[in-house]
């Protein structure tokens, strides 16, 4: 992993707005300016998905587990970085890539089984196994589907980033 924190010293470039940060961030574009990197959010995360990322800033790793939206990260933060818990935590949604076993005609429904909101469903298809589809309006971006995928074919990212990449 490359530490770009020193490179940013002179460029003052801001964090990528489409990158997935912590839930309920009030101003993601100011995250690197306001976060003190104290690690309290990671220490209190009940599923331990908040890890120190590039430059020591906290980031979410869905390969470990899911976000339960417990709000502990926001409560533990000494800075005023977070929106109230009543707000939408983020505009993150899941996307399934072509590496999915079902697209290769291998039966697998682990992502759908782990999706509590039932946003991932499987549509029967003639001559092949049922194909996964994601109902984006029902997906809350919790990431429960990511760690259970045997081929790492599911990614959770901001909806804006997905639209920029034409992912549906």
Automatic annotation (TrEMBL):
Gene3D superfamilies named in the record: 3.30.70.20
> In which broad location class does this protein mainly occur, judging by the first location in its UniProt entry?
cytoplasm
Cytoplasm among keywords: yes
| Positions annotated to bind [4Fe-4S] cluster 3 | 139, 142, 145, 149
Q: Which residues bind [4Fe-4S] cluster 1?
A: 35, 38, 41, 45
Q: Which cofactor does it need?
A: [4Fe-4S] cluster
CDD domains the record matches:
NapF_like (cd10564)
Chain segments annotated as coiled-coil in the UniProt record: none
Q: Which UniProt keywords apply?
A: 4Fe-4S, Cytoplasm, Iron, Iron-sulfur, Metal-binding, Repeat
Classification lineage: Bacteria, Pseudomonadati, Pseudomonadota, Gammaproteobacteria, Vibrionales
User: NCBIfam families recorded for this chain?
Assistant: napF
Claim: Metal-binding is one of the keywords in the record: yes
Do you know which Pfam families this protein is assigned to? Fer4_7
The stretch of residues making up the signal peptide is: none
Family stated for the protein in its record? Belongs to the NapF family.
Would you tell me the protein name for this molecule? Ferredoxin-type protein NapF
Q: How does it assemble?
A: Interacts with the cytoplasmic NapA precursor.
* HAMAP family, sorted: NapF
Which amino acid positions bind [4Fe-4S] cluster 2, per UniProt? Answer: 67, 70, 73, 77
Protein location = Cytoplasm
One GO cellular component assignment for this chain's record is: cytoplasm
One GO MF term: metal ion binding
What role does it play? Could be involved in the maturation of NapA, the catalytic subunit of the periplasmic nitrate reductase, before its export into the periplasm.
* Domain named 4Fe-4S ferredoxin-type: residues: 26-55, 58-86, 130-159
